[in-house]
Amino acid sequence: MNKLKPSLRQLFYYNPITDCYIRHNDNKLTSNYSTEFLYVFQTQYGEFNENDYKVVGYNIKNESDALFDGYVDNPNEGSICCCTHPIKNFYYIQNIKHNQTWLVGSECVKKVSYYLYQQTLKYKKQHERMAEGRICGYCENVLIDLRKKIQKKGYCDINCYRKSQYKINFGIHKGKILNEFVYTKKGFDYIQWVKSVLKKDRNAFGQYPLFLEIIEEIELELIV
Question: pTM of the full predicted structure?
Answer without folding.
Answer: 0.57
